[in-house]
């Protein structure tokens, strides 16, 4: 079997001059010239030297498990899935590759489909939240590890795969660890179809994974050619990370040092600021050739991140600005310079206060080493507003989209205006709106509508802006988010969160903050998220009436609140409303019989 696979691989590796009629074994069509160009680049990757060993171990491993260990940038994430696809093609089975982040799964699917000379969505596909780009012919599927865990849990089996590649195992995501535990306890030998599992990891986690899986065969990727990049450290910590990163990039450009540049900053906000600053500056540089291209790389850009892999006909240098996401599965062969802030901003959930904290922390030594190795390259890979308004005209355009009832209604109003504009990208840019996020909202609404129709819920068209629709929307929000209620304790915008007695303020992007004086903050609000950060803010906020909270919240809610004046007020209000409780229940029952409305 392994010899047949190797023969298949060698045949597909023929150059155009050696075989004009060579066909792609996956779709039966002749290879394009672009395929051979990429093949030469693939052969130069460090992982290519381990190809024969990997295919032999995949075929002969007694336990069905193979561990692949190699440094970042060695080509593991792109080449291992392709070799597994060759293995699966000979056996008539399917391959699933997991990634700890949805954007990584999307990007790899695009890149691998290009390298295999196949059409994305046919033989190669991907599955991420709200987007399934697969079909009946899909042989190789990239997916978010949480989605595969859901599939395994729902089917009580292995899911729709015969060969499973668990990539970036060193990231230790909850879903990846659970999948490994479930598969080990299930014993692959006892499962039908002789399934195979390939665990791809950084060398640092190799000993632990080897012990966990019971000493399976390990394929070690040899170190690539070339010396290890030499780090240069700043003598002092710069007061402005973004400005320091921009100056370091411009200095490299002025020296006209060859190669692309990769910049690591902690947050998406800093990435956007850095890209805006560099885009203004690079055009004024007195350098030979075209000005460099500045490219952001973070989850908010969706499929647009694929631009970091695209070759430029003009030969312009690429400056990729990213954060911790590029530590995993984003190997860019042309990178020769890395500018690393040494910090990352991560969301850490605290179950005691039911809130996420934005924690700015130093990266680990392992991350720092991996980022340093990126410079070696390879021998010749939130709905709503995106930023604060930049001028008075943009601020006025935004204010026109705000709704008197708060942020939730404002978001609906933004969405309706987006549809009326014909989903125009320029319309979004003029108002500082995220076009990609609004397109995603449109897709989500379509999926929700399809689900409601599938379970035969009665539907009626929304009458947004009518008094009944306004009241129904508030009831829906309170019924679903009664645990996220806060009261303004002193009339100045200091909100006490009822469930854990934290005090927070409204986000600067909240519509109540942008209203002209003497507008006062609403006394009672319901919020979508609360994050402990430098601003300690409530995000996506709408005013509610406490009577509605007492009426719609479950009985256990008030009795389990921590002691506060807010709780005492709500309990007193409940006693006053007791006499009318029977009438409220009957009217609520009648309302729930009405047709469902999807905004």
Please provide a brief summary of the model.
By secondary structure, this protein is an alpha/beta fold. The chain has 4 domains: 2-220, P-loop containing nucleotide triphosphate hydrolases (Rossmann fold); 241-374, 3-Layer(aba) Sandwich (Rossmann fold); 382-455, no CATH class; 458-599, no CATH class.
Tell me what you see in this structure.
- It is a single chain.
- With 599 residues, the protein is α/β, with parallel strands linked by helices.
- It folds into four domains: 2-220, Rossmann fold; 241-374, P-loop containing nucleotide triphosphate hydrolases (Rossmann fold, 3-Layer(aba) Sandwich), CATH 3.40.50; 382-455, no CATH class; 458-599, no CATH class.
- It has 21 helices and 21 strands.
- It has an eight-stranded mixed β-sheet, with helices on both faces. Strands 16-17-18-20-19 form a five-stranded mixed barrel. It has a four-stranded parallel β-sheet with strand order 10-11-9-12, with helices on both faces.
- Strand 19 and strand 20 form a beta hairpin.
- The termini are far apart.
- The relative contact order is 0.08.
């Amino acid at each position: 079997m392994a010899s047949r696979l190797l023969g298949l691989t060698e045949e597909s590796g023929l150059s155009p001059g050696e075989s004009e009629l060579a066909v792609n074994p996956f779709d039966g069509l002749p290879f394009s010239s672009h395929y051979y160009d990429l093949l030469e680049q693939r052969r130069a990757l460090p992982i290519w030297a381990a190809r024969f060993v990997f295919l032999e171990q995949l075929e002969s491993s007694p336990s069905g498990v193979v561990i692949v260990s190699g440094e970042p940038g060695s080509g593991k994430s792109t080449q291992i899935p392709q070799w597994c696809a060759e293995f699966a093609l000979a056996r008539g089975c399917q391959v699933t590759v997991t990634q700890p982040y949805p954007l990584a799964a999307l990007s790899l699917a695009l890149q691998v489909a290009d390298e295999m000379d196949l059409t994305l969505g046919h033989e190669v596909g991907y599955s991420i939240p709200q987007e399934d780009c697969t079909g009946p012919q899909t042989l190789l599927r990239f997916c978010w590890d949480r989605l595969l865990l859901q599939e395994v849990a729902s089917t009580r089996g292995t899911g729709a795969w015969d060969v499973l590649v668990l990539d970036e195992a060193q990231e230790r995501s909850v879903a990846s660890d659970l999948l490994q535990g479930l598969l080990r306890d299930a014993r692959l030998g006892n499962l039908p179809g002789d399934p195979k599992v390939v665990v791809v990891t950084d060398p640092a986690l190799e000993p632990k994974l080897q012990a966990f899986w019971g000493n399976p065969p390990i394929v070690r990727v040899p170190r690539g050619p070339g010396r290890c990049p030499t780090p240069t450290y700043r003598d002092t910590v710069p007061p402005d990370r973004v400005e320091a990163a921009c100056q370091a990039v411009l200095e490299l450009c002025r020296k006209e040092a060859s190669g692309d540049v990769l910049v690591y900053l902690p947050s998406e906000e800093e990435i956007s600021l850095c890209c805006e600053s560099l885009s203004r500056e690079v055009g004024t540089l007195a350098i030979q050739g075209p000005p460099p291209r500045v490219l952001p790389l973070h989850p908010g850009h969706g499929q647009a991140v694929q631009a970091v892999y695209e070759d430029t006909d003009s030969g312009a240098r690429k400056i990729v600005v990213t954060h911790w996401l590029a530590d995993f599965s984003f190997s860019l062969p042309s990178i020769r310079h890395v500018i690393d802030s040494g910090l990352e901003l991560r969301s850490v959930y605290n179950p005691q206060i039911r809130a996420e904290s934005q924690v700015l922390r130093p990266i680990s030594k392992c991350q720092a080493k991996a980022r340093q190795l990126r410079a070696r390259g390879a021998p010749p890979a939130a709905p709503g507003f995106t930023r604060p308004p930049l001028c008075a005209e943009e601020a006025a355009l935004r204010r026109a989209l705000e709704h008197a009832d708060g942020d939730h209604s404002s978001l609906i109003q933004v969405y309706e205006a987006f549809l009326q504009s014909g989903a125009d990208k320029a319309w979004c840019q003029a108002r500082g709106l995220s076009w990609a996020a609004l397109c995603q909202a449109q897709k989500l609404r379509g999926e929700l509508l399809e689900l409601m129709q599938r379970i035969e819920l009665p539907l009626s068209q929304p009458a947004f802006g009518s008094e009944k629709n306004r009241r129904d929307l508030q009831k829906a929000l309170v019924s679903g988010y009664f645990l996220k209620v806060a009261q303004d304790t002193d009339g100045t915008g200091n909100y006490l969160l009822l469930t854990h007695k934290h005090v927070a303020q409204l986000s600067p992007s909240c519509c109540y903050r942008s209203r002209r004086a003497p507008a006062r903050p609403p006394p009672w609000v319901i919020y979508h998220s609360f994050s402990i950060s430098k601003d300690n803010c409530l995000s996506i906020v709408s005013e509610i009436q406490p009577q509605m909270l007492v009426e719609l919240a479950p009985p256990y809610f008030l009795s389990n609140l921590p002691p506060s004046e807010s709780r005492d007020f709500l309990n007193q209000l409940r006693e006053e409303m007791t006499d009318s409780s029977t009438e409220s229940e009957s009217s609520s029952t009648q309302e729930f019989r009405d047709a469902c409305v999807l905004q």
